[in-house]
Queue: 3 jobs
Job 1
Amino acid sequence: MERDFEEIFQDKIDQEIKIEPKDWMPEKYRQTLIRQISQHAHSEIVGMLPEGNWITRAPNLRRKAILIAKVQDEAGHGLYLYSAAETLGITRDEMYAQLHSGKAKYSSIFNYPTLSWADIGAIGWLVDGAAIMNQVPLCRSSFGPYARAMVRVCKEESFHQRQGFEILLTLGKGTEAQKRMAQDAINRWWWPSIMMFGPTDDESPNTIQSMKWKIKRFTNDELRQKFVDVCAEQIKILGLTIPDKDLKWNESTGHYDFGKINWDEFWQVVQGNGPCNKQRLETRKKAWEEGAWVREAASAYAEKRKQKQVVTAA
Amino acid sequence: MSNTEWPLWEVFIRSKQGLDHKHVGSLHAADAQMAIENARDVYTRRMEGVSIWVVESKYVHASNPAEAGALYDPANDKAYRHPTFYHLPDEVKHM
Ligand SMILES: [Fe+2]
Ligand SMILES: [Fe+2]
């Protein structure tokens, strides 16, 4: 019986028929999606922290308004994704608990600090850029609520990347000190950004199943290569450099070759030893704990109003 | 008390006057008023709507996907409900 269900399920996937929350699905498909979507949601939420750090210090009102709008968008992305995950049978509070206990991961990139204003430019260009590269194919993911959330996210991401590039472009045309600041930011964000696509294909055993289920459409290495190719061209317009001496156009492959990624660093940060892991988690936990009275007060107020309505109706 | 989640609400948005409200997603809120305000912030940051409906998710009743076959079967063999079923001479205009 289970076998039949699984065949019907895979058949739908092969025909590009979306899976909706109440449809039958293999338990492993459900669990994979819960993990991936909630991790994605956590990344959007934690991702607000490094950028939020610069809201009060944005160089002018225009930049400040833009940064606030971008950070608010990220909150929205987190919320779309949490709702999508909830359709699979996990509660919002369970997901928060997993984040706060360290059981659930979020993108390691957000464990790096934002040291100068130019980092806001580098994050927009590289971090949002890598995220977009990842997210565009997810708009066609086989699970309906995830795909729909991603369509919304992708529509909003485009401005994030463009505003970041614009910041770097402005700094690149500025004084020597501004140029140095932009280059320094790119130097620090480049490698963590290309690590965002995750381990190499032969190190990611779940990729094959995820691709068969059409949760994923491209492998980590495919997406990483696309990203490197795009950035290698865009950097020329900035008049800055990518900190990789091995970055070179390869005529025969039609792609840019690039240097060796420091996977030790990647795993160190995933395991909690990045520069800001502790700080990020503590900030999230503090926000959750210190917001408890607001959640309780709103519930109490809603309850009181409901009681009143009952009385007037009677 | 602190362990109780705010209820889940489904959000429907009319993108412009004259169009239907369309389901856009869901969110948590303590009451309807807050659900509408949150929906404004979460789902209409770029003028996506001129009107918002929120419905507490527990009040939504859905058809069962496992019964989809039987449920929609009666419509399956009635091609004559579609205008393309009828073959009329080309000379007939405006029909
Ligand atoms: Fe985002
Ligand atoms: Fe973004």
Job 2
Amino acid sequence: MSIIEFRKTSKTFGQVTVLDQVDLNIDSGEVVVLIGPSGSGKSTLLRCINGLEQITGGDLVVDGISVKSGNANLRQIRQEAGMVFQQFNLFPQMTALENVAFGPRQVRGLAKAEAEAQALALLDKVGLKERARHFPSELSGGQQQRVAIARALAVRPKVMLFDEPTSALDPELKQEVLNVMRQLAQEGMTMVVVTHEMSFAKQVGTRLIFMEHGKISVDGEPRQMIDNPPSDRLKDFLQHV
Amino acid sequence: MEIDWSVIPSFLPQLVAGAKVTLTIAFWGLVIGTALGFLVGLMRAYGNRVVNALALVYVELMRGTPIVVQVMFLYFALPILTGIRINPMAAAILSIGVNAGAYIAEIVRGALLSIPRGLSEAGLAMGLPRWKVLVHIVGPLAFRRLIPPLGNQYIVSLKDTSLFIVIGVAELTRTGQEIMASNFRAVEIWTAVGVFYLIMTGVLSLVLRIIEKRMRIL
Ligand SMILES: Nc1ncnc2c1ncn2[C@@H]1O[C@H](COP(=O)(O)OP(=O)(O)OP(=O)(O)O)[C@@H](O)[C@H]1O
Ligand SMILES: [Mg+2]
């Protein structure tokens, strides 16, 4: 069953059409890698899934709930779809542990002790148990992004959305984040990932989507598409990343 | 006339009484002003177009007119318009309140809008309602940035109370003038009055410095 269904979904900012009647079904367990030129609408597509951007046409259904069905339902969707941002966006006034425990306490209503025990386990999972008491400003970019992944996982989402999670990182720090993501995929997490990391797409992705001008232009198996691009545009694009 | 500092103790009790009035006006005025400022600041930052426009009209009205005109209006014009008479003390407190409220509103708005959008989005993306994002994420961060300009406004408002000499409130400056009228010791009195203000603003500055040191600006 599809966990995310775009149904002729459109998004316009004023006169500009950023998503143009997108049809797309993503099933549970898929690892969808989203690529495309700058401005093609990748971030917007991702942000429509959890309602950070409001769609302007068609419908978009996540885990059986339409993004258009009101604020309470939207919050439900957001609990099912965790997001990881390019700029990490950790809460600077909280330690790593508090960042991760924050969601479960505020959203799922967990008691402090329970939330922190869970948070510590998640930090352990991303290899940062020893850094639990550090503030974001005391962590490297790669460490911050791993905390951000743990923070999103803490709410127990069914889907994880990643918007260029390694683009703000130095090359030597990218790998530690990609490793955590790979592990997550192996555990069966449904993931939608905007990235320029083609080796990640090949090794971890189960599906590759190439976007152009707010439309899906190519959709297929990552290995085949990268090794034998079915369109000249994709071929051209791949040569430049 | 010779300058004679030894006369100061003789009018010290009067000055202390005046300073108390000044502090009373500043304290209650700023309680009102801070509450009003937070409310209007929130309206400016998060209100829809109508709410925002209403808030802006208030802010511009207060920032665009001198505080002396505001207190004159409250004390002399309002009774004629509404039939409600208020005493000078109440007029003074209210003036500080509505005047400081406008400036504090802009301080609050600026602090709220200075917090990176990504942080709100991170909160929203976990399924938090907007008010929780404000209370737990944006609010605490904005508050840290708020303290220095807020403290500055408190000092300005404290000094603004001296303008209420125009409606005859027996605050510090008025007291100084009354003593002057009886003994003509301008140098001694205005020096003493100045020192009184310096002590009050100095203590306020010090407290703010300590709070700022305690809280890391993030
Ligand atoms: N809030 C907004 N207001 C107006 N236009 C916007 C807004 N957000 C995005 N856009 C426009 O929508 C288009 C698609 O933006 P989007 O961020 O989705 O692209 P992208 O594929 O993620 O690009 P990049 O690779 O640069 O991140 C761009 O032309 C952008 O200028
Ligand atoms: Mg983008």
Job 3
Amino acid sequence: MKKKKRKRTVNIEWCKGCGICVAFCPKGVMDLDESEKAAIVRPDDCVDCGLCELRCPDLAIESEEIDTP
Amino acid sequence: MAIRDYIRERFMPHIWCPGCGHGIVMNNLIRAVENLELRKRDIVMVSGIGCSARISGYLDFHTLHTLHGRALAFATGVKMARPELRILVPMGDGDATAIGGNHFIHAARRNIDLTAVIMNNRIYGMTGGQYSPLSGRGKAATTAPLGNIDQAFDIADLAMSAGASFVARTTTYHAVSMIKILEKAIMHKGFSVVEILTQCPTYFGRKNRLGSAVDMMKAYKTGTTPVGSEAKKEDPELIERGIFVEEDRPEYCTEYENIIKKAMGVH
Ligand code: SF4
Ligand code: SF4
Ligand code: SF4
């Protein structure tokens, strides 16, 4: 059975703009926006490795399973 | 369960500085507990004082926020009274090896079934950046503006010599292996020590011009190597990470239980 893909969102209330998710995403999916919060700018490039979620010191990146066609 | 189910959301966002590695440790500790499918009510987290010790306020287990350096003493009491519970003891490097140094070596010597998670950021963050027994010679701190003259401990070596039956080291960069190591440490029956190299960009980083949290994590990537690797032989400066000891040895509470049985004449 294929593992379901997960979609990530940033909880900007908790994000402190440290840039860890931006620096270590292997696909350059994240960036900091003008208010210095993480933003998912290239969602289509995400390879679902989950590392951004695991390395966020503020538990600000969350994910949920999505149905893929 | 979702990650949010393990935290006390009313205290979020937490107090740690942007990029502080302690948040990454908390994040991955939750994942380890989730993967092991442990019930929150079977876990007691006991912490002392320091930035790291704040973690017990954020997690929704049974939690005990105690005195500086004394977390292991309180944890020993809890474990002796309720040996069926899993006890997690997060500590800072100063908390564990300076103020609590004696508790640390004796908990290891007894091999009591506690999981000590030592967040080693090599400085006292909460009180303003004083050097700790892990800062290392030549490093700068508020109390060592011209460079520290103290040699550093090696936490893993110390734990092994003192008798801990599970000893490992990882870093905040290595999140995936941190989770696996924490899972093993939690399940290990005996005193387990997991040293986690964690960045304090605000004090240790700034005082020693190590750059941002991201730069400090990159240094964990380049400055460490898996235990027993060839790279270590070529570059002795590299810090080894992984599991150093994982042994089955008589555990303190079990031994104590046996003594009670003996005293009661049960054979
Ligand atoms: S790692 Fe977390 S806190 Fe840091 S910028 Fe990304 S989402 Fe924000
Ligand atoms: S899951 Fe992996 S690829 Fe996707 S945004 Fe996070 S770090 Fe990047
Ligand atoms: S002072 Fe250092 S250890 Fe304390 S919260 Fe800030 S970055 Fe973390």
